[in-house]
Design brief:
The chain is α+β, with helices and mostly antiparallel strands. The protein has 3 helices and 7 strands. Strands 1-7-6-5-4-3-2 form a 7-stranded antiparallel sheet.
Length: about 150
Amino acid sequence: MMAEFESQTELKCPVLALREFLLRPANLPQISDPDLQLEILNAPAVISEGDEIEFRITAYGFKQRMRHRYVEVAEAQIIAEQIEGPARSWRHTQHMQAGDDLSICSLTDRVLFEPPGGMLGFVMTEARIRESLRDGMDVRYETLRELLED
């Protein structure tokens, strides 16, 4: 059964600046929770629809290698799906919307996921994944503010 997590923030930057930042895999480690030790193993410089990225994180005491495919790269939305990794399924949607004042935008992160099975499922429960996502989004949004806001 799929679980859903959603989080949103407002940033004082144009949508285009946010989108350009998010489409560069080299930027991902700096906006990720430092505890995850995110390391990009293979990725293009700039993401296009259909591209894959391969990365490694440390979570719950395990190093985990993952691959995600970008299934949609649009003006206001980026969607990546796990094609290899510990979860049974994982789909991350990043939706960007300009405010009335074009120098402000909102970012909504939505993750649909199914926790892993087997022994890993006892450690990576839905509740722990949600907690990790909450903590990770706090870091992500704070860092995006520091990097993108004037």
